[in-house]
Amino acid sequence: SNVTACVSQMLNVILFIAFGLATPTVASAQSVPNTLRDFGILGTWATDCTAAASDKNYYTVFSVASSGKVTRTQYTKPKVVFNEYVIVSAKHVAKNQLWYLQVSEKNVASKVEVVVIKDGDRYRYLSSKISGTDAFFIQNGKFVKSGAESAWSFKCR
Fold it and tell me: pLDDT tens for residues 24-36?
């Protein structure tokens, strides 16, 4: 009868919706470590890999712990941590651009959204801002305070 067909059709719709809600989305399927690995940014980077870390030659290390935690650590002196963030989310926003959200473990309220552009074995910051605000440190590849372009960092071997 029509009622049976209608109920059957409604059950199919409900099951379809329930199945859709229970299935993880493709966007969340890729983990942060895999996203950074695929982008090719894991490792040590510096403006000049032949010189020691300094306040004019930051060393930045993107690494994955055995637990899967991804960190971005900057050094301004050899073996002296300037800052360290945990990257909690990351996604490709263009073929050569990566967006990520980094959180300071020392100050959990410090959440910064970053976009980098990569060209072969070098990358630079396109933007950096406090998450959820328009408070930019770097915008359009330039430091907001000075107007200076963000420097390229090169992959250290």
Answer: 334 444 699 999 9
